Amino acid sequence: MKKFVAAATAAVLSFTTMASLAACGKKDIQKLTNAQWLSMINQSFGMSGYTEEEPYFENISSDSPYFSDVQTATEWNVIDASEDFDPEDTLSWGEAYVTLVNAGEFTDEKASDMDKIKYGIANFGVESRTYWRNRDISAEDAIKMLSTAQEKWAGHTYTDDEKVEKVKYSEGVVDLTTDDSPVEQYSINGNIVSIPSMQDLGDGTTSTVSQEDLGIKTGDVYVLPANGTYLGDTACRAENVYEENGEIKIENSEEDLDLYDIAEEIQLKETMEPTMENCVVYDGNGEVISVGNNISPEVTAEMNSAQPTLDDLTNKNDGKDMFESTGFDVSHSFDVDDWTVELKYGINGKLDLAATISTESENKNGTKQSIEIGAAVNDLKVTNNVDYSWFTLHSAEVKVDYELEQSFKYGGSYEKTAIYAPYDNRNTSFLKNLKNSKFKGEDAKGAKTIASRKTIKIASLDVYNAGIAKVCFDVSAQIKVDGSIEIKITESGTKGLSYKDGKVKLINISNKDRSIKAEANIEGTLNFGPALYVIGLKKKILGVEAKVGLGGDFSAELHMADSEMHLIEEASGSDIPPTAAGMVTETVITADASQIEAIAKSRGGKYEATDGVKLHIDLCVEVSLYFILGVEMSKESYASDIIGDSFSWDICSADNAKIGAVHIDNLNKVNAAWGAKANDLCTLEYKNFDEEDADSSTDDSSTDSKSNDSSAKSGSDSEDTSSNEIAHGEKLNIMQLKTIIDPGETTAIIIQQLPYGYEMSDIQFSSDDPDIVTVNGSGEITAVASGNALITIKTSDGKNMAYAAVTVTDSHNTSAA
User: What is the model's pTM?
Assistant: First the structure.
């Protein structure tokens, strides 16, 4: 990388003097190395892995810490192997622009570096000049550009002017979809196609067609047109052709056709907005709800025999009023196992979906539980792109843009009369005895058996274009619940996959709002599953399932203490039915003083009391909250056949996306904190036993101490409570490189991955401008005033770093963003 050198000595001296004066009192400017920059680009543009083991650059060997990122970036044409590359050099404006344009393929392959720089200046949201190309760029500006470029790449759609639909059939394929095709009517029964010899042309005239007119012979591949009964073109291979009872019969092979059997070339670029006119809508049981007027109002062989029309739906559906006061026009309800699903959608303009999934139950012990998940999916857009030529799939892309609002509710009650624990079982394990007696015969897993990882299909959409392609789109919910919780999420995002020359890019952007009231645990995701099909093939070109949601890991701890808050015993409370937690805290146990004295003595202390010591139980509940994001590529697609396997990314999960914790003491005192290291939230304070024969002047054993929910259990109770462990890998990764918040708001840095050999305790957070943004040791960010700041996330030894740019907006002047 070249460095800017001033031409005139006087100008240099003058500039240096002014710069030194201007720098007084200003924050240090953070900069990035080329290696750090490539790592960020690879992560943001979903590029992972490389195929060539031989280094592309002589100065970067296979044992270099930069090898993986450099190989990956080279194979995706982000950097050029024919040019020099120093991973430790400081990133320049020019390199930042060129690499971003290359990563997003924003310009023509033949564009010069200067063309790419000009494109970046015009489109990446940071003011600069072309003559800055050799100057160092700040980390803050680089990250802002990266975030803008990534959103532009992931969020691109095709206008009507950019739309491309082209297919060239393979040699020998009989194309019956042309305007002069002799076939208008046909029917399909199993693998038999029947074509009437007398065709109704629809204008009061008829024509005759013979086997010779069709030109289809045994072994030929032929394509039938869409008509009033069949949606989209249908491709088949003829196994036998004959005439019978005034019809031409074609017996088709039952083997699935391959792409090269049909097409020599397919060029497709299109963004489709699902509407009631271009969709077939199915409910979660596979029942057809409606068929768009632009497709067909009739029943097909692959649909249900009793298919309602739009007219039917608006007047009658399970006795419900179809038009409600909500923004959704049509309602349809159905049952899946013990769940009731109510599906709502609009019939005017674009298609918006809303669903409520609920269940309610009561077991023999009087535990009542209800679960409800609500989802509204708006502003759906499906974009696909296929480049298939010379019988080779060069590239394919399928992605979905959406706005999603999710809400989760869980509630329950416990009505059984309490069974008190025995006073004394002579094993000094009061809490264990309590649980065994009070909840003997109860369902120890509580609500887990009600909704343990249940997937419920909400709806399916088949979105048709003019005839060459369709996108099949599934929406389903996956739920796992414990305890009592209310969560609401609003998200705008893009999920998908881009395949090119045997490699896959993950397309993922996500912006979330959150509103959480947690008392226990929930995990809920909404799955989007778009798949791209062409020319009526059964096998998809590319398929992807995207998961979005919010989860929480639940743990509970029981603390037994006397009235003076001497801690007697601790035990896990995670196996108690969450709805019965109130009974635990209301239980009072009378114990022998001799037993408490024995416990104190075993800990090197002393305890004096009369018989009948009253003990109470405190319950601490903690929920670690995390995002759920994932994308999986379908195993049964042409792209996966070429690559050789399916790909799955769990971008965020319980292991790597903790955003904070909620702690509840005795079901009433709530303490919450954002950040990956949010802990020590307990408000209860306990005393140690007085030390035996200790001098009162030096005795500090009665000093208050907070309970430690992760400490070892005393007595014979050695139950463990699990804690989240962040995923480990080669480098330090965070979820969001750019965050925009308002003054006074807080959010959290989400650690996706820790470097091998490091734990969260090794991670340090700092802000380059605390007057704008502060950050604590858990990664919780608080906006102080409008402006921009850079958050540095690093390991304590300084060997691994990541950065997040934060913009604090001015509520009276949003130009600060």
Answer: 0.67
> Tokens at residue 354, please?
């809303």
Q: Count CB-CB contacts under 10 A for residue 338.
A: 11
Give the closest residue to 523 by CA, choosing from 361, 399, 655, 666: 655
- Asked if residue 625 lies in contact with residue 662, where contact means CB atoms within 8 angstroms, the answer is yes
Residue 583 is classified by DSSP as: H
**Neighbouring-strand partners of residue 473:** 461, 530
Asked if pLDDT for residue 747 goes beyond 90, the answer is no
CA torsion 239-242-247-250 (nearest 10°) is 0
Go through 428-450 and write b for each residue having 16 or more CB atoms within 10 A of its CB, e for each that does not. bbbbbbbbeebbeebbeebbbeb
Is 124 a residue whose pLDDT tops 60?
yes
**Spatial CB neighbours of 708, under 8 Å, sequence gap ≥ 6:** 682
The sign one gets for the Cα dihedral 255, 259, 264, 268 is positive
What is the residue type of 214? L
| pLDDT one-digit tens code per residue, 499-508 | 777 777 777 7
Which residues fall within 8 angstroms of residue 387, CB to CB, at 6 or more apart?
266, 267, 393, 394, 395, 396
Distance CA 69, CA 88 (A): 13
Q: Tokens for 588?
A: 């009072």
Name 268's bridge partners.
165, 386
The torsion angles phi and psi of 561, rounded to 5 degrees, stand at -145, 160
CA atoms within 13 A on the CB side of 412: 31
Report d(CA 201, CA 182) in Å as an integer.
Answer: 9
Give the pLDDT confidence score for residue 157 in this predicted structure: 86
What are the pLDDT digits (tens) for 158-194? 888 888 888 888 888 888 877 777 887 788 888 888 8
Residues 72/60, Cβ–Cβ less than 8 Å? no
Tokens 């669903």 belong to residue: 355
Examine the pLDDT at 743 and tell me if it is beyond 50: yes
Distance, CA of 143 to CA of 160 (rounded, Å)? 33
Q: pLDDT digits over 456-471, tens only?
A: 777 777 887 656 777 7
Tokens of 402: 């959406």
* Pairing of β 738-741 and β 801-808: parallel
Q: Report the amino acid identity of residue 762.
A: D
Tell me how far apart the alpha carbons of residues 210 and 216 are, in angstroms, rounded to a whole number: 10
Per the CB < 8 A criterion, the answer to whether 783 and 742 are in contact is yes
Q: Domain ranges in the chain?
A: 9-154, 164-255, 279-416+454-554+627-652, 556-626+656-706, 728-816
Between 620 and 110, where is the model more confident?
110
Calpha distance 28→10 (Å, rounded): 26
Which of 260-264, 469-473, 559-563, 762-766 has the highest mean predicted lDDT (pLDDT)?
Answer: 762-766
Q: Which fold has domain 728-816?
A: Immunoglobulin-like (2.60.40)
Question: How far is C-alpha 247 from the chain's CA centre?
Answer: 53
Residues 217-236: b if buried by 16+ CB within 10 A, e if exposed: eeebbbbbbbeeebbbbbbb
In this structure, the strands spanning 247-252 and 234-244 are antiparallel
